[in-house]
């Protein structure tokens, strides 16, 4: 028996069923984000664009793609329960909710993306912080060894992100928001390169 085959859970059909549902949810997230970006390209003058908003769009897209990539490690879970299945569905759904918050149906009630984003910052950063907290649980579910392999900086970064999200939810300071967004994108790229180059 190969190593990959040995890693597959006892109930392979259930595992594949869960993967399909995760793929559907994350696919909707990617579609929303990419469609939103395409809309900005198609109608650049319709609503004023804000670099901070674009940075968070990039962060969300990176997170969704990375999440989809490393959720393959769920194949190491031997026994699935409804609670675990429900948790994974909720976790994946957080990304869709963030995607919808970044690109609403319309901005008719706002002066542009800066006005919209700042008016909904408590919702966005609240759910962003919750998503990062759920990531720790998701990582732990894959095994304590996997959690330890990410190093102490992983937990420090998550804690810092949650703290900065709490500040971002309260302040409208554009410089703080820009630095936070750019830092989040930079860390996401660094983390993906360091830890998820392969799934071996």
Automatic annotation (TrEMBL):
Q: Could you list the residue ranges that cross the membrane?
A: 20-41, 53-70, 82-103, 147-169, 176-197
Which superkingdom, per the lineage? Bacteria
What are the protein's UniProt keywords?
Answer: Membrane, Transmembrane, Transmembrane helix
Q: What protein does this entry describe?
A: Uncharacterized protein
Q: Which species is the source of this protein? A: Bradyrhizobium lablabi
